[in-house]
């Protein structure tokens, strides 16, 4: 049994928690004993065995579907059924089949994507030979070979590469949305043993040890190459597989696939539960009426309808209850769900076909990847956005700088001609000619400024077709190095020990002695180099507040002037850095180098020890100046955010960038503004061992009104305590920016708002680090940009630019919500009206469960006569056009407040239907009660009344739909008048003499009971009474007799 469940994809045994990973290189037998996951991935939901049961289980979570299966069972019982089984089976099978086909198509696509990834080939070292293997067959402990521009197969410990001193270069766009980063590896290993941390989602940390020939070495994140990266600028490299498949950090950050359902779906489940109760209430009233009628009047009909043995009023009432459950089932019509699927699919196509959301430059159209969430787009209250690649283009430009107290960059509109520099980047633009003159004149401060920019970075250079290209870990580094290149200090190449420049046309090589890395606490980076003349210099760049604390007192006056310039740059929304340097003494440096080596090889508290060592040498710096770069926003981002804010949508930016970067981008895109009353900064420097964002109790945080607008900037370390208070503060702010957050924290912040605010959320991003956030939100949107396709593949909707979000929400989302609500209101109206007429009729047919309409009308009412008009209404209707939707974004508010469809709106529909049904039943009844033909004979009979009642009903609901339609199209007209024409055509055909002559034996003449054989003894009553055991048939025919008797008495 366990193997069968496993084959079906069901886990029957709880997996033991892994505390430490232990593996040996090239020893599959040893590694397989730990039963580590292989490298295959699975994002699909079903397999061959689980598709049908799991999909049907998901569909039957809709209570109405389960309800109609129950109805079908009831209809198969002849004692209580007064309707044929096909009236329920056909619509039910249609609904289930459409949903099955759609879900099957979606999952087949996921399987194809999985197979494409799992069947990629990679070279694996097996028995001393390189053999080609599929990715899914790679095991933990295998040594694999990667070549330039290949995707990384799994999480690898880098062993060796083709580059000098094993320096390699990787692109990490699939992981963190950034362009690239260099990795320095100094190992040449083929036989080793590794102990490391268990699988986790921390992208920036790795701890472990490597043992070889009795020696133990410390491993950190700099030695790890993660799945999702791409190898760049490196001919080949070898790596040891540490984590595979679902254990890789990429998959650990992907989050779980969830079955997303809209708030309207949840509300409909609640309403269906109410409808069940209301249906039971109506059936109970009618069954009690049947019992009373049988007790008081039933004996009068025994002559014509003798009771079966054991039948009495109680049994008749019990059977009548279930008969009315079948008769009144249209309060929850099965065609509702067919129509909803068609409506959602139609609105999804409108998104796909929208040319105004098509990005010409990248040839990328908008895509609705999920067809079940359209109306939720019209109810968004919170948007959670990534920064890099989502709000920005990942393109930065060097705009301003301050050098030795002089500000450059805003003197002339004419661009500088860099033709004097053969290595200049032709795309670089600068407008201040004074800076070029200062460089050419040999100003030592200006030259030292650009020399620092050319040396203090982690950029990699690559030459293609005699052109120089830079690939930087962050775009601002690339912009600064490019600026130095154009002003005559060209970075050409680097090794782990040297950096080669071309200074004003002269090739120069600096010896790289130490790199003092940037981190969130230090907020600065330094390099120590030795010039060709043997001079030792420390170059440092970082946040101005950090650099100022470490300046020599002699720089105090220059600091004041530079601060004024920095304030000016910040007011323009530019990203700023302060630059400083320090000349070092040889003896002092040697002593520091020894202490640095001890700290860097320590196995305990390595980071803290290194920070202390860095602090010792990064002091008494001399200020050079400051740089200012512009982070290029995508087109239309500030305008989009402004429009969404007018629609009362709150935007939170969740980014892994440092605080200063996040604040600057907040100002650039108008999220943070100078006129805000106050901007709160919540910044902690240390993180808890485990971040617990979500409390055990689901406490709802209510909205609070505040005077003025506020902003909030908070870092990831602060998201570990006082969460509800923090959330309450954040929700009162107009803009919130969370910086230095991990991919998992992004998802947890989204879940926090979902849980405690009970609001509809949307997450938008473009990198694999956004996948978990996208899956957690009610709506996930992927940007198909330069940062890979992981976000798009996990999203519900995708497009190429952030600016398209306002059209997706304010136009398509609002229209979809309006159409869905109008569709539901009308659908419940027409079906409640249809059902209430049956209810009133029960009081005039002896509560015998006789239908007031014929079976063909009951079958075709929802599937043919009223289906297409309401679909036309719900696909094409719009209250205002897209231009007015943009001009008045406040029109979006009703969706956020659930004003168009709610429990109160449903109650109003119920009352409206009750009133309409009373008119539609009693006016035809009163009109026909005393009606005679021109020869004086009565024409009032059951069939005439049924025809008149159903015709009045259809015309009335069609007129109501016409009154509810805002936007008439040719399709609406065709559907409405065409459906009425079909009704009259079917009615005239079914009631014609020709049909009776062709199908005499099976012609369903209303008012007769076709299942009771006629006899010569009782030609008028058409039945052999003593042989009858079908109580449902008897009560049905009895209702006809009673109805005709009532009309006859009215006529007399």
Task: Provide a descriptive summary of the structure in words.
By secondary structure, the protein is of the alpha+beta class. 42% of the residues lie in helices and 18% in strands. It contains 33 helices and 33 strands. The strands form six sheets. Strands 14-33-32-31-15-27-30-29-28 form a nine-stranded mixed sheet, with helices on both faces. Strands 17-16-26-25-24-23-22-21-20 form a nine-stranded antiparallel sheet, sandwiched between helices. The chain has a six-stranded antiparallel sheet with strand order 3-2-4-13-5-11, with no helix packed on it. Helix 22 links the parallel strand 31 and strand 32. Helix 10 packs parallel to helix 26, helix 16 runs antiparallel to helix 17 and helix 26 packs antiparallel against helix 31. The longest helix is centred in the last third of the chain and has 39 residues. It is found in: Membrane. It is a multi-pass membrane protein.
Brief summary:
The protein has 1052 residues and is of the alpha+beta class. 42% of the residues lie in helices and 18% in strands.
Detail the topology: elements first, then pairings:
Blueprint: H1 2-7, E1 21-24, H2 28-32, H3 51-59, H4 63-75, H5 86-118, E2 121-126, E3 129-134, E4 143-147, E5 155-161, E6 167-171, H6 173-176, E7 181-184, E8 193-196, E9 208-212, E10 215-219, E11 224-225, E12 230-232, E13 236-243, H7 249-252, H8 263-296, H9 313-327, H10 335-352, E14 367-368, E15 380-385, E16 392-403, E17 406-408, H11 433-440, H12 444-455, E18 460-464, E19 467-471, H13 475-486, E20 489-494, E21 498-503, E22 506-516, E23 524-530, E24 536-542, H14 544-548, H15 556-571, E25 575-583, H16 586-600, H17 606-617, E26 622-633, H18 637-646, E27 650-654, H19 659-668, E28 678-682, E29 710-715, H20 723-732, E30 735-739, H21 743-757, E31 760-765, H22 771-776, E32 779-783, H23 790-793, E33 797-799, H24 804-842, H25 855-865, H26 867-876, H27 882-887, H28 893-896, H29 903-929, H30 942-964, H31 970-990, H32 993-998, H33 1031-1051
Parallel strand pairs: 15-27, 15-31, 27-30, 28-29, 29-30, 31-32, 32-33
Antiparallel strand pairs: 1-8, 2-3, 2-4, 4-13, 5-11, 5-13, 6-7, 6-12, 8-9, 9-10, 14-33, 16-17, 16-26, 18-19, 20-21, 21-22, 22-23, 23-24, 24-25, 25-26
Helix pairs in contact: 3-5, 5-10, 5-25, 8-9, 10-24, 10-26, 12-13, 16-17, 18-24, 24-26, 24-29, 24-30, 26-31, 29-30
């Amino acid at each position: 049994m366990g193997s069968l469940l496993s084959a079906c994809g069901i886990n029957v045994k709880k997996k033991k928690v892994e505390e430490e990973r232990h593996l040996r290189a090239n020893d599959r037998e040893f590694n397989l004993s730990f039963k580590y996951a292989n490298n295959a991935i699975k994002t699909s939901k079903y397999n061959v065995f689980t598709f049908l049961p799991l999909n049907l289980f998901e569909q039957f979570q809709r209570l109405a579907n389960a309800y109609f299966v129950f109805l079908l069972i009831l209809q198969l019982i002849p004692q209580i059924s007064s309707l044929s089984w096909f009236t329920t089976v056909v619509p039910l099978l249609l609904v289930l089949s459409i949903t099955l086909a759609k879900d099957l198509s979606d999952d087949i696509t996921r399987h194809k994507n999985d197979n494409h990834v799992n069947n990629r080939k990679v070279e694996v070292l097996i028995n001393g030979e390189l053999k080609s293997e599929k990715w899914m067959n790679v095991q933990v402990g295998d040594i694999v070979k990667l070549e330039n521009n290949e995707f990384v197969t799994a999480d690898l410990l880098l062993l060796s590469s083709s580059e000098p001193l094993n320096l390699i270069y990787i692109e990490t766009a699939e992981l963190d949305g950034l362009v690239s980063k260099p990795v320095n590896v100094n190992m040449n290993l083929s036989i080793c043993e590794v102990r490391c941390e268990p699988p986790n989602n921390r992208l920036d940390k790795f701890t472990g040890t490597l043992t070889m020939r009795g020696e133990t070495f410390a491993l950190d994140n700099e030695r790890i190459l993660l799945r999702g990266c791409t190898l760049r600028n490196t001919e080949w490299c070898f790596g040891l597989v540490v984590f595979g498949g679902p254990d890789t950090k990429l998959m650990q950050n992907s989050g779980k696939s969830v079955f997303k359902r809209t708030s309207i779906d949840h509300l409909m489940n609640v309403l269906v539960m109410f409808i069940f109760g209301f249906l039971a209430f109506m059936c109970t009233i009618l069954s009690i009426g049947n019992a009373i009628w049988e007790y008081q009047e039933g004996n009068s009909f025994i002559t014509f309808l003798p009771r079966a043995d054991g039948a009495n009023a109680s049994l008749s009432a019990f059977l009548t209850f279930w008969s009315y459950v079948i008769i009144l089932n249209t309060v929850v019509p099965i065609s509702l769900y067919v129509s909803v699927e068609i409506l959602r699919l139609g609105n999804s196509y409108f998104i796909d076909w929208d040319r105004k959301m098509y990005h010409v430059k990248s040839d990328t159209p908008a895509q609705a990847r999920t067809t079940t969430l359209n109306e939720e787009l019209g109810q968004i209250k919170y948007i959670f956005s990534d920064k890099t690649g989502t709000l920005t283009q990942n393109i930065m430009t060097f705009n301003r700088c301050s050098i030795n107290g002089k500000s450059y960059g805003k003197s002339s509109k004419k661009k500088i001609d860099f033709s004097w520099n053969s290595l200049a980047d032709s795309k670089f633009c600068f407008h201040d000619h004074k800076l070029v003159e200062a460089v050419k004149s040999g100003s030592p401060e200006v030259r030292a400024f650009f020399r620092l920019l050319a040396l203090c970075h982690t950029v990699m250079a690559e030459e293609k077709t005699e052109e120089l290209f830079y690939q930087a870990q962050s775009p601002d580094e690339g912009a600064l190095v490019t600026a130095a290149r154009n002003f005559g200090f060209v970075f050409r190449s680097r090794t782990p020990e040297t950096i080669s420049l071309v200074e004003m046309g002269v090739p120069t090589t600096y010896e790289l002695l130490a790199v003092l890395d940037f981190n969130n606490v230090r907020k600065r980076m330094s390099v120590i180099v030795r010039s060709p003349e043997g001079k030792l210099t420390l170059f440092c760049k970082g946040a101005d507040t950090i650099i100022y604390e470490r300046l020599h007192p002699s720089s105090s006056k220059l600091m004041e002037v530079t601060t004024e310039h920095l304030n000016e740059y910040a007011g323009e929304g530019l990203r700023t850095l302060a630059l400083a340097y320090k000349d070092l003494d040889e003896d002092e440096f040697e002593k520091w180098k020894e202490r640095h080596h001890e700290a860097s090889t320590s196995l305990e508290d390595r980071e803290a020890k290194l920070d202390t060592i860095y602090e010792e040498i990064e002091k008494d710096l001399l200020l050079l100046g400051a740089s200012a770069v512009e982070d290029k926003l995508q087109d239309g981002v500030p305008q989009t955010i402004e429009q969404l804010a007018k629609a009362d949508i709150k935007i939170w930016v969740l980014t892994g960038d440092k605080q200063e970067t996040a604040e600057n981008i907040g100002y650039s895109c108008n999220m943070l503004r100078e006129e805000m009353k106050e901007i709160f900064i919540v910044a902690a420097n240390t993180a808890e061992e485990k971040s617990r964002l979500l409390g055990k109790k689901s406490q709802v945080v209510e909205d609070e009104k505040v005077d003025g607008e506020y902003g909030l900037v908070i870092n990831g370390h602060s998201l570990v305590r006082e969460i509800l208070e923090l959330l309450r503060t954040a929700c009162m702010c107009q803009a919130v920016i969370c910086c230095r957050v991990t991919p998992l924290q992004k998802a947890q912040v989204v879940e926090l708002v979902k849980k405690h605010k009970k609001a509809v959320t949307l997450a938008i991003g473009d990198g694999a680090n956004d996948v978990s956030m996208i899956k957690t939100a009610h709506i996930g949107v992927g940007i198909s940009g330069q940062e890979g396709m992981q976000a798009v593949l996990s999203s519900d909707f995708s497009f190429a630019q952030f600016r398209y979000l306002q059209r997706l929400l304010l136009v398509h989302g609002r229209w979809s919500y309006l159409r869905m609500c109008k569709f539901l209101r009308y659908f419940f109206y027409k079906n409640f009206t249809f059902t209430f007429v049956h209810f009133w009729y029960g009081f005039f047919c002896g509560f015998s469960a006789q239908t007031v309409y014929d079976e063909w009308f009951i079958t075709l009412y929802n599937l043919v006569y009223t289906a297409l008009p309401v679909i036309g209404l719900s696909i094409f209707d719009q209250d205002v056009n897209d231009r007015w939707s943009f001009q008045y974004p406040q029109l979006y508010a009703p969706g956020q407040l659930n004003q168009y469809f709610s429990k109160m709106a449903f109650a109003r529909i119920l009352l409206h239907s009750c009133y309409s049904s009373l008119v539609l039943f009693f006016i035809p009844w009163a009109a026909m009660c005393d009606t005679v033909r021109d020869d004086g004979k009565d024409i009032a009979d059951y069939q005439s009344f049924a025809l008149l009642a159903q015709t009045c009903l259809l015309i009335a609901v069609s007129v109501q739909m016409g009154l509810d339609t805002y936007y008439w199209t040719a399709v609406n007209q065709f559907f409405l008048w065409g459906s009425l024409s079909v009704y009259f055509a079917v009615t005239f055909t079914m009631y014609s003499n020709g049909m009776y002559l062709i199908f005499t034996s099976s012609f369903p003449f209303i008012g007769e009971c076709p299942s009771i054989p006629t006899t010569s003894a009782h030609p008028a009553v058409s039945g052999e009474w003593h042989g009858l055991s079908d109580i449902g048939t008897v009560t049905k025919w009895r209702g006809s007799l009673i109805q005709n008797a009532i009309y006859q008495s009215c006529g007399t």
